[in-house]
Amino acid sequence: MDQRGQRQARVRVRGHGRGARGRGVRMRGGGVVGRIQVSDEIRATIIDHVINHGLSYREAAQRVQPVLRRSTVVSIVRTFQNENRVHRLPHAGGRRNIFSVQQEAAIVDMVVANNAIKLREIQTAVIADQGTFQNINSVSVSTIDRVLKKNHLAMKQLYRVPFQRNSEMVKEARFQYVQRIMELEAEGPHTFIFVDEAGFNLTKVRRRGRNIIGHRATVTVPGQRGANITMCAAISNDGVLCHIPTVGPYNTERLITFLDALRH
């Protein structure tokens, strides 16, 4: 190896070459420090060591974890002496946020009100609304997606809920049911029997799975779907009293048969 190659090899070993960028530099105190952000607590500790206790810059740099460079300590102390501040200044570079806090809250309200809304629909609604978004003339779909992720909104599988479930009539029926149960409890000890049915199919499998990136996630299923099975069961404080599965739905005749079996 010639003399020039030996110099390049020494530079790479010391950690100052082009190939060592981002790996950190081993300091004399022992710790390895790369490009890190010094928190306000560590800055206050550094200033206390140097200003109040009279430590040198190098000694103060080695008293904290991770170990800092001497130049970093000099910069922190100089900032405190010249500007009388310990905390870091907020980030001011780059492009400012397009939406204000109130406008981001309005976008979140759109999604909360309509979980099936699309990014394109949000984009159209934002541009068309000249009240809340009067300063927004154009916005990209990716910007709206970042706003949603920032506010902890993620894409999920939609769960279908019948709109009758929370209607006024259903709410009143629930209230009357609770009132009736409370009246029975007040009259004396009763044995409550709850009857319910549920349908399922043996060929049902999970809709989501995992596999190596680039390969499909598959599961083995029968070639034909098969018939639906309905399970009707009755439970009480004593446990399961009766359960009868049947192929197909539970009609009036099958329900009467189930109640007869429950009595016996």
From TrEMBL:
Pfam family, one: DDE_3
Chain residue ranges for the region called Disordered: 1-26
Name recorded for this polypeptide: Tc1-like transposase DDE domain-containing protein
Domain Tc1-like transposase DDE: residue ranges: 192-263
Biased composition (Basic residues): 7-26
UniProt-listed PANTHER family: TRANSPOSASE
Origin organism lineage: Eukaryota, Metazoa, Chordata, Craniata, Vertebrata
SUPFAM superfamilies per record: Homeodomain-like
Top-level taxon in the UniProt lineage: Eukaryota
GO MF annotations in UniProt: nucleic acid binding
